[in-house]
């Protein structure tokens, strides 16, 4: 009888900065699955490894390891970088200390990794009490050889439930998580992975990763200035691999950074306080660099978003407030230039993908139960 090659191994990196977090539940959601080739690297960040170890008593100690990092920096980047770079498995991914994986997903994922050996495998991303977040939104029926622009990969920022090959960690341009960043530490890393990977697959598994939202002691819970919120975008634009991006990738990345980070920051600040004149230069600097990255990309933005960008660049604060308050459907959904209404990033094609792609996914539990019956 022919023997099948061993399934790829996977390391899950979990940073934890206090023993009060439900770290046992997180670790158990990985090693409690029937996937012996999957291990956990727990990075004890500015906290006692002894206290963390006490929370894990009774779990299989051969399936997890503890690392210690005492850097005094309230940023998740340090422990994430230490854990990822210390991992020795074929693939690596990350997990929050109050998050969990759904049952049997590693059985499913490792079989998918073995079948096509992608450099990246994108799993499902769910939020506690909300449900699935369909990001990216790939073309209907496309599960392998995804295209960064056509399959909207840049819209997925968190590396949660994204398994990436160790070769990418050793890549000469690998940026890691942005050092000392208190927010957006994974923005540059995400853009790098989507841009550089030679083979990206989208998991057919409907189950995946569940983000907990109940924690009130996150290491990044303190408020941020506009400069801090936009710093990860500037860090991304300064990466050396940016120069080698294809035109379609530049457009897709510019759109994502503008809508998901620059304008979302503007809107969140506007809701909590009046827009400060001192903050406008920070927005203008980032948007100027994005226009330099992809000249003319603004035509694909919605009319409202394009209006916001133009108001910032031209210093028209009165127009800025008008666009922020504009709730007209045409302004919110129609692209600035009508020729882009059917583009992959347009609202119509995206809506079709959001409706149809989930119907093509398969639950992990029946497949796993049948396999091990």
Short description:
The protein is α/β, with parallel strands linked by helices and 373 residues long. It has helices spanning 23-31, 49-55, 77-86, 105-116, 166-169, 187-196, 226-237, 247-272, 280-293, 303-314, 317-325, 329-333, 347-356, 364-371; strands spanning 10-16, 38-45, 64-69, 91-94, 100-101, 120-122, 124-127, 131-132, 162-165, 200-202, 208-211.
Explained architecture:
It is built from 14 helices and eleven strands. Strand 2, helix 2 (49-55) and strand 3 (64-69) form a beta-alpha-beta unit. With 373 residues, it is α/β, with parallel strands linked by helices. The protein folds into two domains: 10-221, Spore Coat Polysaccharide Biosynthesis Protein SpsA, Chain A, CATH 3.90.550; 226-336, no CATH class. The protein is globular, with a radius of gyration of 21 Å. It starts with 9 loop residues before the first strand and ends with a helix. The protein has helices spanning 23-31, 49-55, 77-86, 105-116, 166-169, 187-196, 226-237, 247-272, 280-293, 303-314, 317-325, 329-333, 347-356, 364-371, and strands spanning 10-16, 38-45, 64-69, 91-94, 100-101, 120-122, 124-127, 131-132, 162-165, 200-202, 208-211. The chain is 40% helix and 13% strand. Strands 3-2-1-4-9-6-10 form a seven-stranded mixed β-sheet, sandwiched between helices. A four-stranded mixed β-sheet has the order 5-11-7-8.
């Amino acid at each position: 009888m022919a023997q099948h090659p061993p399934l790829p191994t996977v390391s899950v990196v979990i940073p934890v900065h206090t023993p009060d977090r439900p770290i046992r539940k997180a670790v158990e959601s990985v090693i409690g699955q029937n996937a012996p080739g999957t291990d956990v690297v727990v990075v004890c960040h500015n906290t006692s490894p002894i206290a963390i170890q006490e929370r894990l008593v009774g779990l299989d100690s051969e399936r997890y390891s503890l690392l210690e990092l005492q850097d005094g920096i309230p940023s998740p980047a340090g422990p994430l970088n230490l854990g990822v770079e210390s991992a020795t498995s074929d693939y690596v991914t990350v997990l929050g200390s109050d998050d969990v994986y759904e049952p049997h997903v590693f059985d499913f994922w490792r079989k998918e990794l073995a079948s096509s050996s992608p450099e990246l495998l994108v799993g499902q991303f769910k939020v506690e009490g909300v449900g699935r977040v369909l990001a990216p939104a790939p073309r209907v029926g496309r599960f392998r050889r995804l295209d960064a622009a056509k399959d909207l990969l840049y819209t997925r920022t968190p590396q949660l439930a994204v398994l990436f090959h160790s070769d990418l960690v050793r890549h000469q341009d690998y940026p890691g998580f942005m050092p000392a960043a208190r927010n957006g530490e994974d923005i540059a890393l995400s853009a790098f992975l989507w841009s550089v990977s030679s083979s990206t697959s989208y998991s057919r598994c409907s189950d995946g990763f569940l983000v907990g939202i109940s924690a009130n002691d996150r290491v990044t819970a303190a408020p941020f200035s506009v400069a801090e919120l936009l710093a990860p975008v500037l860090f991304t634009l300064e990466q050396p691999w940016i120069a080698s991006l294809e035109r379609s990738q530049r457009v897709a990345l510019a759109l994502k950074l503008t809508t998901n980070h620059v304008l979302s920051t503007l809107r969140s600040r506007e809701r909590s306080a009046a827009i400060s004149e001192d903050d406008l230069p920070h927005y203008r600097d980032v948007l100027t660099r994005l226009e330099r990255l992809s000249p003319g990309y603004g035509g694909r933005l919605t009319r409202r978003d394009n209006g916001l960008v133009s108001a910032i660049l031209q210093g028209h604060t009165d127009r800025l407030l008008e666009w922020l308050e504009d709730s007209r459907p045409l302004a919110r959904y129609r692209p600035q230039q009508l020729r882009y209404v059917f583009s992959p990033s347009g609202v119509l094609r995206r809506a079709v993908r959001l409706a149809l792609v989930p119907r093509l996914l398969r639950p992990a539990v029946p497949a796993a139960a049948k396999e091990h019956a």
